[in-house]
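Problem: given the chain below (399 residues), write out its structure.
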Amino acid sequence: MKAIKPYYLFLFSAVIAFTISSCKKSDAVKPSLTLINAVSVTGGYGDTITLRGTNLPTAHNPVVTVNDQSFEIAEVTSTSFKAVVPKMVGSGKVSVKVDGITYDGPDFVYKYKAVVTTLAGSGDGGSQDGLGGAASFNCPWGTVADDNGDLYIADCYNRLIRKITPTGTVSTIHIPITINGATFFSPNNIALDKATHTLYVTDFNAHLLKINADNSMVVIYDGPSATSGIAVGSDGFLYMANNITSTIFKLSTDGSTATPIATNIVTPRNIIFDKSDNMYVAGYDPIKGQAAIFQVARDGYNRVIYDDPDFKGWEIAVDRAGNFYEADHFNNVIKIIDKNGKIAIIAGSGNAEDVDGVGLAASFNGPQGLAIDADGNLYVSTYNYDTGGGNKIRKIVVY
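Solution.
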């Protein structure tokens, strides 16, 4: 069957005609409005969709929305509405409002576009500083972005923290083997206090390292088992995951207090906050036996908000619109879970190689660390444990 083009809605051979049902409004007379459409319409940012019908009012432009975002109206005739798809609107039901009355339209499927480039890394294992491909990493993992567009990377096997400017220039923050009497092992996850520009880094052992803005550092936590995810809350506390004990801890920023608040999230990995300061943890849902995203309250109450049976990775991120992203390490793809719960691959062919490109034409060699900047751009660190390949930092612009 011929595919439906994203910019136009074709009629099926058996034309499906339906009258859009209106919301009740006692003081308005429903106009004669009949749309003839297929079951759904598909489009990406900037595409034009066409809703065809009969007796369409032309005196006033309709308001066409999906997920409460308005489409720009390009043309109105008595037989069609043409509307331009806004950026990152997501999938959902089309709503058409005419003369104060709202009608339900067909389902709309948003087609995401993701442009993947390499910001830094030659692909060879090493610790060389430099610009773009002249720099090298050895198993980069945790990734975080500041408000200036700089990235900080936990370079695991090198035992280094790497800084990358927006233009791709890489420099190094060295970590001593012993810090205030504690041995700090390979850095794993990383968080940033944007107010003080303080970094917090977990290792693959049981420690939490605090790196001040002047690069002085101190181990503020030495616990009983492996630490993993770390995040800075707006309440002035740190939130840290213990991958072995299935525990989320609440810590003071000097590490003097560490209180377990949740003890039932299996293999918790990275911890993130959305724009409303809600906390989320990537983990495992033992009831369904699959990867999941948990929403966790400050008192530790938690619930699964999304299950993804096909997700085989560790890191998640969330944008300002409430869309979640997954770095699927073993499937070598980047996925989105949009605000309506629809899961889709937005980038990656599945091949274990770092190739720049658009959408599924791009590929990743073991995506693992994942971060998002203030502009909604994604950053992914790659490493392949079977071949030692990857060792790059990739940038993804999603629209």
